[in-house]
């Protein structure tokens, strides 16, 4: 991790989680800081796992991060990581990404979606569509979806413009903006 929590390691849930590699995370955040900056942003980390992406954003200046994780054990690890790091602005939601995005609520400025690679493109498309239709994204929100490099680009909903895709070994990051 970089920023205010630099050098700290996160605990990872015992199984079922594929954390974003350090190399991919560093490249992602270097690009984010150059393109949009992170200061004061409201971040949504869907399929959060250990929370690496959301915690990195907080460590680099984001105002808040909401972590959505369906697995109870992983949500407990997230809460422990939040306590250990001592970062403010953390909300952990133990729900599926589908259920969270299906309800109206706070709008976010930056959205990370790092679903398990087994999650089908149609399911990701449904989550992204629900985000937009339930006004969970603000004007200009940047959405980043992490997928297996062999996967197709996510099916972006109307009103979301694809920006770029960048491959890192067996991982591809897809960027879009609402």
Automatic annotation (TrEMBL):
<feature type="region of interest" description="Disordered">
    <location>
        <begin position="1"/>
        <end position="22"/>
    </location>
</feature>
<keyword id="KW-0808">Transferase</keyword>
<dbReference type="Pfam" id="PF03602">
    <property type="entry name" value="Cons_hypoth95"/>
</dbReference>
<dbReference type="InterPro" id="IPR002052">
    <property type="entry name" value="DNA_methylase_N6_adenine_CS"/>
</dbReference>
<protein>
    <submittedName>
        <fullName>16S rRNA (Guanine(966)-N(2))-methyltransferase RsmD</fullName>
        <ecNumber>2.1.1.171</ecNumber>
    </submittedName>
</protein>
<dbReference type="GO" id="GO:0003676">
    <property type="term" value="F:nucleic acid binding"/>
</dbReference>
<dbReference type="InterPro" id="IPR004398">
    <property type="entry name" value="RNA_MeTrfase_RsmD"/>
</dbReference>
<keyword id="KW-0489">Methyltransferase</keyword>
<dbReference type="GO" id="GO:0052913">
    <property type="term" value="F:16S rRNA (guanine(966)-N(2))-methyltransferase activity"/>
</dbReference>
<dbReference type="InterPro" id="IPR029063">
    <property type="entry name" value="SAM-dependent_MTases_sf"/>
</dbReference>
């Amino acid at each position: 991790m970089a920023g205010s929590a630099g050098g700290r390691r996160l605990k990872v849930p015992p199984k079922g989680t594929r954390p974003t590699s350090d190399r991919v995370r560093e490249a992602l955040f270097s690009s984010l800081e150059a393109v949009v900056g992170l200061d004061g942003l409201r971040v949504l980390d869907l399929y959060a796992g250990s929370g690496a992406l959301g915690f990195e954003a907080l460590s680099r200046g984001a105002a808040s991060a909401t972590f959505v994780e369906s697995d109870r054990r992983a949500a407990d690890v997230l809460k422990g990581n939040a306590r250990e790091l001592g970062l403010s602005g953390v909300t952990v939601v133990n729900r599926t990404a589908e259920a969270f995005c299906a309800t109206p609520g706070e709008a976010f400025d930056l959205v990370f979606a790092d679903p398990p690679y087994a999650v089908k493109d149609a399911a990701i498309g449904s989550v992204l569509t629900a985000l937009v239709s339930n006004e969970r994204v603000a004007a200009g929100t940047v959405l980043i979806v992490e997928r297996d490099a062999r996967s197709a680009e996510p099916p972006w909903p109307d009103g979301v413009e694809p920006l770029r895709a960048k491959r890192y070994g067996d991982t591809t990051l897809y960027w879009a903006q609402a």
